[in-house]
């Protein structure tokens, strides 16, 4: 069920746009669907796709969601000290000496936070920041999950240099014999499956992507299984994390994977419209006011140039959502101070009316607003700060 533009307008009638909302009915329905797809395997909530402490806490309060996956060590220590979660994995290696010192100085944070490594150089960096003889730091070893069907062909994100099971166990042996470190987990993120829709393009393109994902998933299951079994021979792993919103089913089917990561599925940005096996409900929206009528079929909105990260192109632009029948102008797009829209619905828009848009990515919308208004039906239940609203900027 989609709330109409009128419902959102009514809920926020006393608020001036630009503003951002999260539809709680859609958020909760998406959370239910993530759990259904995980089929009993716990989901670790990915903070970068939410960036709002109240929404992270809302997700973690539900059975089936266990622990956070943060994108920054400073962010992870912040959450640990606030008590958001006592089980936090930092998904990316850190070079933040100050955050490392805060981690080492806090018994609570050290017990909760696991940092990511993929080489002994990462251990050297920690030693350089903390000095030798520092307390034990929990670490997770990242296995590269890309697909390499032919020499020189790399399909997926550029992450860990650890690709083969032999490489993983070699580094694991060095970690477990290194004073000041405790190897507690493994991770592998299959971005070519989890972050790439198989129904986003046209017929042939979709078939090629589906074929690639099927082959890649089968190869990764064999390689990840072998790597995890080998590492478990030298370390008592607490968790093996994999996947993302787009690959819950295939990742969860692997016996060696103990938990799945997901975040974008809660808010359903436009990049997650193009999957054949699930259809989340748009939950995060932002409203811009009409400030000009330069032509009968064009309405100009204030602000709006919230372009998502990644390869530049139309897929990274925000998308007009409500009222239906609007689109951006190709030659102008979404701008820093104005965003023209056209289409049949533009003819009926008046100055001061609101147009509701969706961001291409989930968490990046929170970097544009200090607060999210949590809407249910035609009412704002609560207004909560984003990371920015709490004065936090983790880069």
From TrEMBL:
InterPro entries: Ala_racemase_N, D-amino_acid_metab_enzyme, PLP-binding_barrel. GO terms for biological process: D-serine catabolic process. Pfam families: Ala_racemase_N. It comes from the Bacteria. Residues 22-192 form the Alanine racemase N-terminal domain. SUPFAM superfamilies: PLP-binding barrel. GO terms for molecular function: D-serine ammonia-lyase activity. This is Amino acid deaminase/aldolase. It comes from Amycolatopsis dendrobii.
